[in-house]
Amino acid sequence: MNLSKKAYADYAKERAPASRHLRNLIFAFLIGGAICTIGQGILMWYRKLGLTVDSAGAATSATLIALSALLTGFGVYDDVAKFAGAGTLVPITGFANSVVSAALEFKSEGVVLGMCAKMFTLAGPVIVFGTTASVVYGLVYWLFIIPS
Description:
mainly alpha, 7 helices, 0% strand
């Protein structure tokens, strides 16, 4: 059967499942917001314990990374991600999830060549981009902001 591009597009459109963009948007917003709210609660708790703003921020980041890694290890984070979609990509928890998921997936290949090597297949480019972006930002700041 030889279909024109328009006929094929019409055929594909009528057989495609209904779009769930609004549902996905709402769940991503709610779950992402819940993760951020939990992070804010942890930050406030650390501040109540007497930590400085900088120390509380660092402790909150470490806590969110540890919780994300732990929930990934138990398979809970992935279940939440299936429900929430992009809402679980809140930077620090999503990044921790991607590193731990890769490590768990390749643990059968051994510690060095499996877990250690493979967990940075996704994290490596992110780290390189973050480092490069911060250097570029620092240079722009140094060249244009400091002389003022």
